[in-house]
UniProtKB/TrEMBL annotation:
The chain crosses the membrane at residues 9-26, 32-50, 62-83, 89-109, 121-144, 226-250, 256-275, 287-310. This is Sodium-dependent bicarbonate transport family permease. The keyword Membrane applies. The lineage of its organism: Bacteria, Pseudomonadati, Pseudomonadota, Gammaproteobacteria, Nevskiales. Keywords: Membrane, Transmembrane, Transmembrane helix. It comes from the Bacteria.
Length: 315
């Protein structure tokens, strides 16, 4: 875990939080942030595709993808049951959608941590990232609508259509396919883009993320302490469940750590964008504030190192 905290990209995240708390005027311009988001999605997809081209799809890859689909359905159910103890059906459903879905940035940080510690992982986990993104959001919305008649505004067909059009998973999956098709030749050609530049771009993106997190701390004021506890307990429970499932399926240390990281991460980009239209009465302070201000920093500073250490011990 110490290695994770001393990673330059993570330290830039801490710098961003500090600057935000000091109310500094430091900020990465939004057009640059948008460009960095596109860059990270492309680079992660390409790297996953190149790795997948080397390893191929075998029984281990099928097991990893099966486990990711199970976790995509199981985590929102766990989150809904836990949050329902302290909040309404509507809010619990929205939180289940956010906590069941995944964070691309947390995944990227986890892959960097594994590479830094010479732990190998397969390109299959980039496919798992795509698989796990939307099912939880749709399941969380269904759970919320079950108990709240006012949440019926957006038809399912419209939601599915918007999900299919969302640029983030489309770019990620498209880049992965390009990396898979081009293989070693593509890896050599794209190395300066997807390799040499990657760490610096991630550090710059995490600097802005730190600033954003500091601004979200205000959303936590006045919330039940139990909500704050669950924002940390649910990711740990999800990671432990993923570790158990992945160990039973014989996943390697790298894939096991990434499955746990994905299961423990929470979406603060894709899920909130969908929830804003699907559940307009749900509180963004909960489904956006908790993942961004608590869960994301916890995973980045502590969780990733913890999951990787446990995975190495189990595999």
């Amino acid at each position: 875990m110490t290695d994770a905290l001393l990673d330059p990209a993570v330290l830039f995240f801490v710098l961003g939080i500090g600057a935000g708390l000091l109310r500094s005027n430091l900020e990465v311009p939004q057009p640059v942030v948008r460009w960095l988001t596109l860059y990270l999605l492309m680079a992660v997809g390409l790297k996953g595709g190149f790795t997948l081209a080397r390893s191929g799809i075998d029984a281990d890859a099928a097991a990893a993808l099966g486990a990711s689909l199970v976790m995509a359905l199981l985590v929102p159910l766990i989150a809904f049951a836990a949050f329902r103890l302290v909040t309404s059906v509507l809010q619990a459903g929205a939180l289940a959608a956010s906590y069941g879905s995944v964070s691309v940035v947390t995944f990227v940080a986890a892959t960097q941590h594994l590479q830094q510690n010479a732990v190998s992982f397969s390109g299959t986990m980039s496919v798992a990232l795509v698989i796990m993104e939307m099912p939880a959001v749709l399941l969380g919305i269904a759970l919320a609508r079950r108990g709240d008649a006012g949440a019926q505004a957006t038809p399912w067909g419209h939601l599915l259509k918007d999900s299919a059009r969302d640029g983030a998973p489309l770019l990620l999956m498209g880049s992965l396919l390009i990396g898979w098709v081009t293989g070693e030749r593509g890896a050599t050609v794209m190395e300066p883009f997807s390799g040499d530049l990657f760490k610096g771009m991630l550090a710059l993106f995490l600097l802005q993320m730190g600033l954003d997190v500091a601004r979200r701390f205000g959303d936590l004021r006045g919330l039940s302490p139990w909500l704050l506890v669950l924002a940390l307990a649910i990711p740990l429970a999800a990671a432990a469940t993923a570790m158990g499932l992945g160990t039973l399926l014989g996943l390697g240390a790298g894939d096991l750590a990434l499955l746990a990281t994905l299961s423990a991460s929470a979406s603060y980009i894709v899920a909130p964008a969908v929830l804003r239209h699907a559940l307009p009465d749900a509180s963004p302070a909960l489904y956006l504030g908790l993942p961004m201000a608590l869960t994301f920093p916890f995973n980045l500073l502590i969780g990733i190192g913890l999951y990787a250490s446990v995975a190495r011990a189990l595999a």
